[in-house]
């Protein structure tokens, strides 16, 4: 019986390939009749020369992801890489309703996180943002942030009280980020942040999310993520779906199922606790989901989210907040380990602010007004965006204009490009944030002090889709990061607490940062599915 289902499933997948190829190659697009240059091959080796002046981002991207790209090209996908500001403005702002989230991503998110912001499109997504935007602007977070970071500080102190020690910063930043979103987002504790907790003691959610990226990357999983998951996400017979999944004889499928189950079970647990608290009249909690549940209960009928949609936000927010913030924090501390003079200057600013505040923790206004802390955070998020790309799919034949002509591999100069319906577009945040045409010749250097001066006129005039400092790090337009203020505050408070107590020095091993997905540090020679960032930590004499 199980093999019959596998056979039916494979036939459906095969039929969908054939239909795709037929649609791409045999059905004429109106754009085919328009004369004009277009890449001779949408895939092949032309990607770096054609779309990337710097080369750096795409070469690494292709090295780590190249086989997936080639396979998707063979299957008839059209892929377009770009970072031109005008083109990006069209994709994420002007014509954002045409350039939608790639179907495979929406499907993966739906399977794993339910009906939250990460997996909805169009009017449903708009409705969810309308309900959630005010919830995020309430800014009650500092006290709980300090409670969590206080535990982190204690855990570090216990480890280094007898002298400097090499500590995996990524491990600790991930645990801290999860506990921060758990406590301030859901009023839920994922991690006690005890220093002696072993991997097996961590919350199952934490272990599951860590395995999620690794299991879903690589050529082997490409067909599943691009074709089977979209099919599964829209197959609305949950019992049958579960039965099929349980009978597929594959360890990989069993692992994925376990991850989905853990993420969903955690979200259910959190959501049910909230509902119960509401019933019992405990409605004073200020975490994001409690505020959302209350706002939803009193919203007009047409604006109200369903239970599935509120529940979907729990898993979506936890996932969206965890690895992004911990990646950003790890990168900043890694750079401060390399640039000791910048670490000293930053520490001095933080210690002076603490002293001026009589040794007390800084409130929201105080911490957000520290100029050098802000400069270090901005510069790191500019040059090293935790998420390197946004992927969109054109839902109509379009023509995409460039701000200045670019050369094709055949040597022709073009100032716009034809984008047929179905083309997948990869927008490079790194390419846009470090574009020398906008940021100047030192665009690729990490220089926090650039933020202490007025930003170049060209930056302000670039019209990059943005909600943060003319950078694409948190994107712009209707799908921009809803947690960008939360993330900045969290990063600043963790840095404040750690740098006023400890000194950080680079570890002995060489580190490189992976690029597709959320960037993560890996020791050179280690498997990229096991990221880590060992650094020497010393307690300060204060
Ligand atoms: C440094 C940390 C962070 C970075 C760099 C970041 C970046 C981004 C980016 C680039 C997107 C758009 C992705 C796309 O559409 O392709 C996004 C979306 C999102 N982020 Fe963040 N994020 C961060 C932290 C957070 C935090 C802390 C939260 C929650 C508290 C959060 C919640 C979300 C949500 C829910 C979305 C989906 C928004 C939508 O589709 O309407 N993020 N983030």
Automatic annotation (TrEMBL):
A GO CC term attached to the entry: membrane
UniProt key word Heme: yes
Location of this chain's protein in the cell: Membrane
Keyword Membrane: yes
Binding site for heme: 481
Keywords noted in UniProt: Heme, Iron, Membrane, Metal-binding, Monooxygenase, Oxidoreductase, Transmembrane, Transmembrane helix
UniProt pathway: Secondary metabolite biosynthesis; terpenoid biosynthesis
Cofactor: heme
Main localisation: membrane
GO terms assigned for molecular function: heme binding; iron ion binding; monooxygenase activity; oxidoreductase activity, acting on paired donors, with incorporation or reduction of molecular oxygen
Cross-referenced Pfam families: p450
Family: Belongs to the cytochrome P450 family.
Record protein name field: Cytochrome P450
């Amino acid at each position: 019986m199980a093999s019959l289902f596998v056979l039916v499933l494979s036939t459906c997948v095969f039929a969908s390939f054939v239909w795709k190829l037929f649609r791409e190659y045999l059905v004429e697009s109106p754009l085919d009749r328009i004369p004009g240059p277009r890449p001779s091959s949408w895939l092949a080796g032309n990607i770096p020369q054609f779309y990337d002046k710097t080369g750096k981002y795409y070469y690494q991207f292709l090295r780590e992801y190249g086989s997936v790209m080639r396979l998707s090209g063979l299957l008839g996908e059209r892929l377009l890489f770009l970072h031109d500001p005008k083109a990006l403005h069209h994709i994420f702002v002007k014509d954002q309703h045409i350039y939608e989230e790639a179907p495979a991503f929406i499907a993966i998110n739906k399977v794993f996180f339910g009906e939250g912001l990460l997996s909805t499109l169009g009017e449903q997504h708009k409705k969810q943002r309308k309900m959630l935007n005010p919830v995020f602007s309430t800014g009650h977070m500092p006290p709980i942030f300090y409670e969590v970071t206080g535990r982190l500080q204690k855990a570090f102190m216990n480890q280094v009280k007898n002298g400097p020690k090499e500590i995996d910063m990524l491990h600790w930043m991930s645990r801290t980020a999860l506990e921060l979103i758990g406590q301030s987002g859901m009023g839920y504790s994922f991690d006690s942040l005890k220093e002696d907790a072993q991997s097996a003691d961590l919350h199952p959610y934490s272990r599951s999310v860590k395995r999620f990226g690794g299991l879903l990357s690589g050529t082997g999983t490409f067909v599943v993520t691009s074709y089977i998951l979209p099919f599964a996400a829209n197959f609305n017979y949950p019992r049958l779906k579960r039965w099929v999944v349980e009978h597929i004889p594959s360890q990989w499928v069993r692992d994925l199922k376990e991850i989905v189950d853990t993420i969903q079970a955690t979200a259910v647990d959190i959501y049910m606790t909230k509902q119960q608290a509401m019933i019992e009249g405990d409605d004073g909690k200020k975490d994001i989901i409690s505020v959302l549940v209350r706002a939803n209960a009193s919203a007009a009928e047409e604006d109200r989210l369903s239970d599935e949609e509120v529940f979907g936000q729990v898993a979506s927010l936890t996932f969206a907040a965890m690895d992004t913030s911990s990646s950003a924090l790890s990168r900043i501390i890694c750079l401060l380990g390399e640039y000791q003079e910048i670490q000293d200057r930053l520490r001095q600013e933080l210690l002076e602010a603490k002293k001026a505040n009589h040794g007390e923790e800084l409130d929201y206004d105080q911490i957000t007004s520290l100029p050098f802390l802000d400069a270090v955070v901005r510069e790191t998020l500019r040059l090293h965006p935790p998420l390197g790309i946004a992927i969109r799919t054109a839902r109509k034949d379009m023509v995409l204009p460039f701000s200045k002509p670019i050369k094709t591999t055949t040597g022709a100069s073009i100032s716009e490009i034809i984008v047929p319906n179905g083309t997948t577009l990869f927008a490079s945040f790194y390419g846009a944030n470090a574009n020398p045409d906008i940021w100047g010749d030192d665009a690729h250097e990490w220089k926090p002090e650039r933020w202490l001066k007025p930003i170049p006129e060209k930056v302000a005039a670039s019209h990059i889709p943005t909600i943060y400092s003319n950078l694409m790090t948190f994107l712009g337009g209707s799908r921009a990061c809803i947690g960008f203020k939360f993330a900045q505050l969290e990063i600043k408070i963790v840095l404040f607490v750690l740098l006023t107590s400890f000194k950080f020095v680079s570890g002995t091993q060489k580190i490189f940062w992976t690029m597709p997905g959320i960037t993560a540090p890996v020791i050179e020679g280690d498997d990229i599915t096991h990221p880590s960032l060992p650094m020497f930590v010393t307690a300060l004499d204060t």
